[in-house]
């Protein structure tokens, strides 16, 4: 039997997310849209329904551009109230639906848009589903002048910080990736990192984790809820 490629799994969950949200849409609905290769496929699938909803708030300039290319209006979050749904990928997601995000450096806007959403639907291929977060290096967005200070604080917490050279976020900041970081308790680590001066956002999404995970596996898309 032919194995399903990662790209096919991403496409399957993107379609499943569209199937899940289309019944909720009306001409006034504005939805939150994430960033990355899986979110891109979701945007492409969503395009067929562009006349069934009002528009979207994007979590990155790249996603905003892709939405606009499909003729989907993109709104500033400040002009929109609560979003009924936010759809995005993840770099890792655990059984409690806590996530590591930010592999594409979009974590800050993602966390903000997710905070405004009633329901967070995570779309991910099976490789992202883990027992414990931390195999994927944890991205942190830092104010540039605080980079070395934040790195020293991370070392005190037992992680190995690595500057992601050449990357500037949509907010004009820099990214540090933390390798070899044990995240036994995502909520507690999220709170600890929230306290470090100079960190704009880190990639642990635990307090605002996903509500629904659409997980692409060889045998189909599993729907897992928190
Ligand atoms: O900054 C990027 C985001 O957090 C993405 O959602 C995450 O990196 C997953 O991206 P992909 O769907 O390309 O694996």
UniProtKB/TrEMBL annotation:
InterPro entries for this protein: NagB/RpiA_transferase-like, Ribose5P_isomerase_typA_subgr, Ribose5P_isomerase_type_A
Gene3D superfamilies, per database record: 3.30.70.260, 3.40.50.1360
Alphabetically ordered keywords of this record: Isomerase
Enzyme Commission designation: 5.3.1.6
Superkingdom: Bacteria
Catalytic reaction list: aldehydo-D-ribose 5-phosphate = D-ribulose 5-phosphate
GO molecular function list: ribose-5-phosphate isomerase activity
Residues reported in the UniProt entry to bind substrate: 35-38, 88-91, 101-104, 128
Catalytic site positions: 110 (proton acceptor)
Keyword Isomerase tagged: yes
Top EC class of this enzyme: isomerase
Pathway given in the UniProt record: Carbohydrate degradation; pentose phosphate pathway; D-ribose 5-phosphate from D-ribulose 5-phosphate (non-oxidative stage): step 1/1
SUPFAM superfamilies found in the cross-reference section: D-ribose-5-phosphate isomerase (RpiA), lid domain, NagB/RpiA/CoA transferase-like
PANTHER family reported in the protein's UniProt record: RIBOSE-5-PHOSPHATE ISOMERASE
Quaternary structure and interacting proteins, as annotated: Homodimer.
Primary role: Catalyzes the reversible conversion of ribose-5-phosphate to ribulose 5-phosphate.
UniProt similarity note: Belongs to the ribose 5-phosphate isomerase family.
Protein name: Ribose-5-phosphate isomerase A
Gene name, Swiss-Prot/TrEMBL: rpiA
């Amino acid at each position: 039997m032919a194995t399903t490629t990662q790209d096919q799994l991403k496409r399957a969950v993107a379609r499943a997310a569209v199937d899940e949200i289309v019944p909720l849409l009306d001409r006034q609905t504005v939805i939150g849209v994430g960033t990355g290769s899986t979110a891109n496929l979701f945007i492409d699938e969503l395009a067929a329904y562009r006349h069934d909803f009002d528009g979207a708030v994007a979590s990155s300039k790249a996603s905003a551009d892709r939405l606009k290319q499909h003729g989907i209006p993109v709104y500033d979050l400040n002009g929109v109230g609560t979003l009924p749904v936010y759809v995005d990928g993840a770099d890792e997601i655990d059984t409690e639906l806590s996530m590591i995000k930010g592999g594409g450096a979009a974590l800050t806007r993602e966390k903000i848009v997710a905070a405004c959403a009633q329901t967070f639907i995570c779309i991910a291929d099976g490789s992202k589903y883990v027992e414990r977060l931390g195999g994927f290096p944890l991205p942190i967005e830092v104010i540039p002048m605080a980079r070395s200070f934040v790195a020293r604080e991370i070392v005190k917490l037992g992680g190995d910080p690595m500057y992601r050279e050449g990357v500037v976020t949509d907010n004009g900041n820099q990214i540090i990736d933390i390798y070899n970081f044990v995240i036994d308790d995502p909520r507690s680590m999220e709170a600890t990192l929230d306290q470090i001066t100079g960190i704009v956002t880190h990639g642990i999404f635990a307090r605002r984790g996903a509500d629904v995970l659409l997980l692409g596996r060889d045998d189909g898309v599993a729907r897992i809820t928190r």
